[in-house]
Amino acid sequence: MEKSSLLLMLFVFLPAIGAGLIQTTTGFGGGIFVMLFFPLFIPLLQSSALSTIITLLLSLTLTWKYRRHVDLKIVALPLVFYVVVSGITINFSTKVNVSGLKAYFGLFLIAVAIYFIFFANRIKLKPTFGTAAVCSSISGMASGLFGIGGPPMVLYFLAAADDDKMKYLATIQIFFFVTGLYNTVLRAINGILTIDILPLIIPGMIGIWIGQTIGTKIIDKINIDQLKKIIYIFLAASGFLTFVTNI
């Protein structure tokens, strides 16, 4: 195997460890973390495809771990909106010049960071039809383009689960698994999931598993709020650098 290929696998493996750790301890954020790094050395759309695939394993194992707390009733409605919007977005992404998307991706990362740093604990939504439609539509669009659809669904599922931590963790993971599987199939059909990406899945999944293992052991010993603040500050900085280098 060429040295460059081994190096690329390492660049996938290391961020994946962080992704597994973060999503295991917070319920989301794995895709956000790897997408800080993957677009640096892999095209944006292929990065989003790889991000979705390697986090599938994590979502599946966490769903199984918390399976007794899953509430399928609050998954069905947002799933419908997500499937429609994400499908349209993925199809659209193959017909536009994706090189121009990186600047918008940077702005998106900044917006996500600002929201979670300043507003996540202040905004309380009600799990209405309209909330499901808006949150899942935004999630489907962001996931279709950038492989990051978690933040809007965090808002919705926290509200729908009545702040029940276990119900939230279990239900959002099964949502991520189903939508991730759907997006992966669509990306394969639309030619986004290319053959050269496939070898990177293995180091990505191994990294995710290691991160999950670490996260499971330390989840009760770390200050989650401090960890998330560090992540979101880093997210904002990365978004700013991505934006200014692509305008």
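^ that was protein a. below is b, sequence first then the tokens
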Amino acid sequence: MSEITDVLAAIDALHLRGERMALATVVSTRGSTYRRAGARLLVPERGASVGNLSGGCLEGDVERIGRELLDSGVPRLELFDLRAEDDAVWGYGLGCNGAIEVFIEPAEQALATASALRLAVEEGRACCLATVLSTSSAQVAPGDRALVTSDGPMGDANPDIRDLAAAALAADDGGIHSLHMPDGEARVFAEVLQPALRLLICGAGHDVVPLVTGAAGMGWRVTITDVRRQLLTHDRFPGATDFIHAPPGEGVAAFAPGERDYLVVMSHNYYKDLEYLRALLDAPFAYLGQLGPRLRTQQLLRELDRSDAIDRLHAPAGLDLGAEGPGEVAWAIVAEMLAVRRGRDAGFLRDRHAPIHEASLE
């Protein structure tokens, strides 16, 4: 989520300076690819690009195409098929074996929607951006788009594209869709963006610092709650989004956990952890991690008469990396939360006998 925010902010900044630019978006993939659909690269007429589409192997070609179409203003849909074993493919310097479809357009064409999309992302609203990639209908053109948020449509758009975006958002069904129209058919990329992960950390000790840094670096929105007001500062936690100075129960209530939220209890105080768990166990959440040995957590749950809840917790929090020290423990916890969010069991990729990502290219 932080990458798309950077790209959208750069579009606004370049536009204010009157500079031309092209926007490239990965719309579908197949096989082993470095990035997935939704990855973006903003190509200014001069200067360094913003964003990333691959491990560096495609950026040069995409930047060249992007600058070429600044004069024509005509969007292009490019397929980079890197699965063939020939010199042309290996010339990309790839260590992967996949196909990537990239939609490249003058960024000014997406400016109005980009501003609205940036607002929706920053305000934490779920949204779907639907973009026409190709069409045989005279009613729409490549680059036409509609943005629909959880609060409804934003701006003017073709009603058929808008309805497609609304349906994709409701079903959380991003990807390539066919839009049937009276005089033809359009191929549309529907990109569903859920709000940035919300993380509540219960405790503000020194080992929370690297956890906040790692989580904020992922673009997550981090809230810290603690009874010690003097620790709840942006100087100590520059990546934090919010602070809640309150006793455990009140802090949890102020955060108001939802079923998509992630929670970590790490106050290092037995009785405070007890009160945090008392407030959290009956709340909805996607992940609840408890720092410390499993036996300690089991004792906490026995005191709460909630021993049955042990399987709902990630306790001890974090992946089994043999982590030592606050920094390594923080990354083990961040990695575990990411695995939960992606629906994965973690483990070594070398032991995985299926593709790392699901294919999206038709």
